[in-house]
Amino acid sequence: MMRNTWFISGMAILLGGCVNLAPDYVRPAAPVPAAWSAASSQGTTQQDAGAIDWRSFFMDARLREVIGLTLANNRDLRVAVLNIEKARAQYRIQDADSYPSLDMTAAGSVARSPAAGAAAVISRRQSVQLGFSSYELDFFGRLKNLSEAALAGYQYNIETQRSVQISLVAEVAGIWLTLAADSERLQLAQSTLKSQQISYALSQRSHQIGAISGLDLSTAQASVEAAQVDIGNYISRLQQDANALNLLAGVAVPAALLPDSIPASAALLLPVKGGLSSDLLLRRPDVLAAEQVLIAANADIGAARAAFFPSITLTAQGGSVSSSLGGLFKAGSGAWSFLPSIDVPIFNAGRNRASLDAAKISKDINIANYEKAIQTAFREVADALAERATLDQRLGAQQRLTGATAKSYRLSEARYRSGIDSYLNSLVAERSWYGARQNLISLHLIDQANRIALYKAMGGGWNGN
To answer: Over 60: is that where the pLDDT of 422 sits?
Structure first.
């Protein structure tokens, strides 16, 4: 009799999954141009960012250590990893419904029945049963499609974790570089304050002997106070940068890993040629995650369609029954049962139709979300390339401007010391030089941030943990 149970179980597995009512999945066409404009990336050559590990992309050893700390301790990334484990377990739960669940039951009972005019009857029953209950034959692919949807959910969480890592690496690098820029600005403000304090002290002595007017003295004092305001501002910003970095890292970042100026090359400049195919966007984890949601929605349509058809479930058991333990496994004690059932949907007030309509609409929504993810990715790359196209020119012009304002300040200062010009002209020249140096620091930061933005936008940064 046990063989009958195994035979029934084997037939159930073979019969399951005969038809799949889900639509054939076709990846939607990317709603973006086939390539980026050659003008936005002039003078460079192509390389796939996804093939470059973040350890190779970031050239500063301190920055690499900070990123390593972050990947080991950041809570958002930890949650993303745990979501993968949770989704894997949920997939295993759903997939288990495709197979019979075998159970063994051992039971015993004793009953006493009173009898009129005779001794009471005591009956005993012992049994051992092996079988499965309520196993659904997946003729129309309902269980298979639910399993496919759960698998897509698992893949979605994998791609989401990769996307979180890319964003995290880029954000940490951006804050680290911002801290470097603010540190450099603070040093510039402090050196400017020292210079202006010296000038103010000289102006005070000159005013005492009547060599300069009170206007010049007040102007010199205003410059000192303005520099002190800048110093206080940058000290505050530095602390805020450090707080943001510590939050992302999940631990206090050692002071030895904090920069005091922007490195000349904290990150590589990705070589990306004009006319680069936009198909590269399909490798971005966030785009892949959006596609997995679409795949799950496609499978849900199959499960919703299967609800229109009959469902067949099987319950079968086989084993041994006896009135005593000693007789359980003797000849003639075998017992089995086979209980098939069929559920035919006849009327449910349009529930199945509404469920199918909702599944189809959900798929259309996820197609739109997938297309939007591609469009967003295309714009991010296009914006980074557009900024890259003029950055070298802007940096060169700003460096020349800084040199010219430095020369102008030295000449104005010499003319003031010689009594040819007023202090106001010297102060204006010094402020121009100060502003030019501040702008140069900002452009260096923009240059490094643009390299990181291009790397992130093209899907780099998650290879290697």
So the answer is: yes
Rounded CA separation 139/12 (Å) = 10
Tokens of 319: 């084993």
Q: Is residue 123 packed enough to be buried (19+ CB in 10 Å), middle (13-18) or exposed (0-12)? A: exposed
Per the structure block, which two tokens stand in for 279? 């198909």
The answer to whether residues 71 and 461 touch, using CB atoms and an 8 Å cutoff, is no
pLDDT of residue 118: 63
Closest CA to 187 of 264, 259, 254: 259
The Cα angle at residue 458 between residues 452 and 459, in degrees rounded to 5: 95
Residue with tokens 């800084």: 402
Crossing angle (nearest 10°) for helices 423-457 and 351-417: 150
How far is residue 160's CA from residue 242's CA, in Å, rounded to a whole number?
A: 27
Buried-exposed string 101-121: b where 16+ CB fall within 10 A, e elsewhere: eeeeeeeeeeeeeeeeeeeee
Whether the pLDDT of residue 250 is over 90: the answer is yes
Distance (Å, rounded) from C-alpha 299 to C-alpha 22? 6
Q: For 232-243, what is the mean pLDDT?
A: 96
CB 335 within 8 A of CB 131: no
**pTM of this prediction?**
0.82
Percent of the chain with pLDDT over 90: 46
What is the mean pLDDT of the segment spanning 166-184?
Answer: 95
Residue 243 CA to residue 250 CA, distance in Å, equals 10
Distance CA 462, CA 81 (A): 13
Run of H or E residues at 39: none
Which residue(s) pair with 104 in the sheet? 130
Average pLDDT over residues 140-163: 93
- Write the DSSP string, 269-289: -----TT-BGGGGGGSHHHHH
Is the separation of the CB atoms in 253 and 66 below 8 Å?
A: yes
What is the distance between the alpha carbons of residues 260 and 180, in angstroms, rounded to a whole number? 5
- Residue 348 CB coordination number (10 Å): 11
CB 444 within 8 A of CB 270: no
